[in-house]
Design goal:
Blueprint (H helix, E strand, L loop, with lengths): L28 H15 L14 H13 L4 H13 L7 H29 L1 H9 L3 E5 L7 E5 H7 L11 H27 L7 E7 L9 E7 L8 H7 L5
Helix pairs in contact: 1-2, 2-4, 3-4
C-alpha cells in the first residue's frame, strides 16, 4: 500500500467539520478519510510528485487525493462519502473544502462515464472492427441516444453535431482533426489487414476513431482513438474492405 495512505486516518478531520450542537449524525469513518486526505494534500501539494510529475496545480492535487483514497476505499464508497459531506455536513465545511469535494464528485462521475464507455466498447467488438475497415463512417458515442454507440455518415455527424452557430460544442478544426484521425487509423488498419492475411497467427495493431458526446450539454465534444482486434479474413475479403475506403 502507498505510504501516503497511512497518513490519511491520522489527519484531524474535526478541524474541517464541527458537528452542530446535538447533532446525531457525525461524519462517518469514510467521510473522515475523505476530509483527512483533502487536508493532507492541500497542506502539502508537493506530495503529488511522489506519484507523478506535476507543478502543484489544483488539478494535480485533486488527482492525488482521489488516487490515495481509491487505495483504501472503493470508488462507490468515496462517492457516497463525498455526497454525504456536501449534503448533511455542508454547513460545517469551509469554502475551500467544499470546492475540493465538489471537484472530487465531478471527477468520480467522469470516471464512472469512462468505465461505462470502456464496458460498451468491449461489448461492441464487431462494430469497432467493421468501422475500422470502413473509411466512410464515423463512430459516435452519445449516451443520450437509445443506442449510445453507432455509426454515422460523415455529413450526418455534422448535421447532428454542428461545429458552427449557437450551441456548437466543437469547431471546424476539431471536425477536420477527427476526419484526419479517421483516415490515418483506416490506413493503418488496411496495413494491419494485409499483414493478417499473410500471417494469420499475428495480431497486428488496428484502430479507429470515436466521437464522444458528454452528457453535460455545455461540455465540448471529444475524440478517442480505440484499438481494434481484427478477425483473420479469407484472402478474397481484402478487395471488399478496400472498396469501402476513403479515396487517397
Amino acid at each position: 500500500m502507498d505510504s501516503r495512505c497511512s497518513l490519511l486516518p491520522a489527519a484531524p478531520w474535526w478541524g474541517y467539520v464541527t458537528s452542530a450542537a446535538g447533532s446525531m449524525h457525525p461524519p462517518s469513518p469514510e467521510q473522515a478519510l475523505v476530509l483527512a486526505a483533502i487536508e493532507r494534500f492541500m497542506a502539502d501539494p508537493d506530495l503529488v510528485l511522489d506519484d507523478q510529475p506535476g507543478d502543484g496545480e489544483s488539478g494535480d492535487v485533486l488527482s492525488a487525493i482521489l488516487r490515495a483514497l481509491t487505495m483504501v476505499l472503493p470508488l462507490g464508497e468515496i462517492e457516497l462519502a463525498v455526497t454525504g459531506l456536501l449534503t448533511v455536513h455542508c454547513a460545517q465545511l469551509d469554502d475551500d473544502t467544499q470546492l475540493v469535494l465538489e471537484a472530487l464528485l465531478t471527477a468520480i462521475e467522469r470516471d464512472d462515464d469512462e468505465m461505462a464507455l470502456d464496458t460498451l466498447l468491449a461489448s461492441e467488438a464487431s462494430l469497432l472492427e467493421a468501422n475500422a475497415l470502413d473509411g466512410n463512417y464515423l463512430l459516435v458515442w452519445d449516451p443520450a441516444d437509445a443506442a449510445p454507440l453507432r455509426e454515422m455518415e460523415i455529413l450526418d455527424v455534422l448535421e447532428r453535431y454542428p461545429c458552427r452557430g449557437e450551441g456548437a460544442r466543437w469547431s471546424c478544426d476539431d471536425f477536420v482533426a477527427l476526419l484526419e484521425g479517421k483516415i490515418l487509423q483506416w490506413r493503418k488498419t488496411m496495413v494491419a489487414l494485409e499483414i493478417l492475411q499473410e500471417q494469420p497467427g499475428t495480431r497486428p495493431a488496428a484502430s479507429t476513431m470515436v466521437l464522444l458526446v458528454p452528457v453535460d450539454p455545455e461540455a465540448p465534444l471529444e475524440q478517442l482513438e480505440v484499438g481494434v482486434t481484427l478477425s483473420p479474413p479469407p484472402p478474397e475479403s481484402s478487395a471488399g474492405a478496400s472498396a469501402r475506403s476513403l479515396p487517397d
